[in-house]
Write a structure and sequence with these properties.
By secondary structure, the chain is mainly α. It has one domain: MetI-like fold, CATH 1.10.3720.10. The chain is 69% helix and 0% strand. It is built from 15 helices and no strands. Helix 14 packs antiparallel against helix 15. The longest helix is centred in the last third of the chain and has 36 residues. The chain is globular and about 70 Å long. The two termini are 21 Å apart.
Length: 304
């Protein structure tokens, strides 16, 4: 019964606004959007081309957009180079992958369960808790740096692996978006499942999650980008070099060369290769989940 309810309603809430097939009437949109898409792709092409440029092309004048003699030397130098503290680059990259995967999974679990409770359950202080979450949307991260540091210090998370993961679980925009999405699910669907004897866990797993897949994909992208690109935690809360992330290492490539008098040309090549490594996962994740994001945006203005 739960699967039938989920299948019946998930098609409504996961349906996107984009047509599945091609029609001649769409040609006018392609004529307008194709040049715009090509223009928007130029920064992507430039990042990829720069990562494969040899040193003479990196500093050529006038600057060249395309790479003439592509080389993998920037990447080989990057992964054979040790940091100033003797930590290999692969360690930073491993930390980033592990931290990002754990944070995305945990953030989705926390956001979806909390949103389900705030949307469909009745308890005291429900409206007050949601109001606090809404107010939290107004604060930019830099405004709460000192309170966050004091909380992390009191919890004993300084210079530990958990300091990368636990602060990322508090994601007000994720809770807000998923809660608004669940509000559109008819209460009758959940009541029918509960009449059949389904527990809260079964309703959450078999009905709620399949219906909010687009919202989950959107939160996954936002959490991934915020965690993968975050160098502040390694800078402010972590002293042990082997616990820092690849985003932090990227910020040290050119700055270290400038302050120590090292080879700035070589540093630029390493930075170009590292920038491409940082950029590609963001691109792949968005391409993989972009259809779900479009469904979320189209559904956000609709009520069931």
């Amino acid at each position: 019964m739960l699967r039938r309810l989920s299948t019946r309603y998930s098609g409504v809430y996961n349906r996107g606004m984009n047509p599945r097939g091609f029609h001649v009437s769409q040609l006018k949109f392609y004529v307008l959007l194709a040049p715009l898409a090509a223009f928007m792709l130029l920064p992507v092409v430039f990042i990829i081309a720069t990562a494969f440029k040899p040193p003479d092309e990196l500093f050529a004048y006038p600057p060249r957009f395309w790479v003439i003699n592509p080389t993998f030397k920037n990447f080989t130098d990057l992964f054979t180079k040790m940091s100033t503290s003797g930590v290999p680059v692969s360690r930073y990259l491993f930390n980033s992958v592990l931290v990002t995967a754990a944070t995305v999974a945990a953030s989705i679990a926390v956001s979806t369960t909390a949103a389900y409770a705030l949307s469909k359950k009745r308890f005291r202080l429900k409206q007050a808790l949601f109001a606090i979450n809404t107010v939290a949307l107004m604060f930019v991260p830099i405004a709460v740096t000192i309170p966050r540091f004091l909380i992390v210090q009191r919890l004993g998370l300084l210079d530990s692996f958990w300091v990368h993961i636990l602060p990322g679980l508090a994601m007000p925009v994720g809770l807000f978006l998923i809660k608004q999405f669940i509000d559109g699910i008819p209460d009758e669907v959940l009541e029918a499942a509960q009449i059949d004897g389904a527990s809260d866990v079964a309703v959450y797993w078999e009905i709620i999650l399949p219906m909010i897949r687009p919202a989950i994909a959107t939160i996954a992208i936002l959490t991934f980008q915020a965690t993968w690109n975050n160098a502040d935690i390694s800078t402010l809360y972590v002293n042990t070099e082997s616990l820092k992330t690849f985003a932090f290492y990227l910020t040290t490539l050119t700055s270290t060369a400038a302050t120590t008098g090292a080879n700035t040309v070589a540093g630029q090549g390493l930075a170009a290769a590292a920038s491409l490594i940082m950029f590609l996962p963001n691109l792949f994740v968005f391409i993989l989940l972009q259809s779900q994001v479009m469904s979320t945006m189209s559904h956000s203005g609709l009520k069931g």
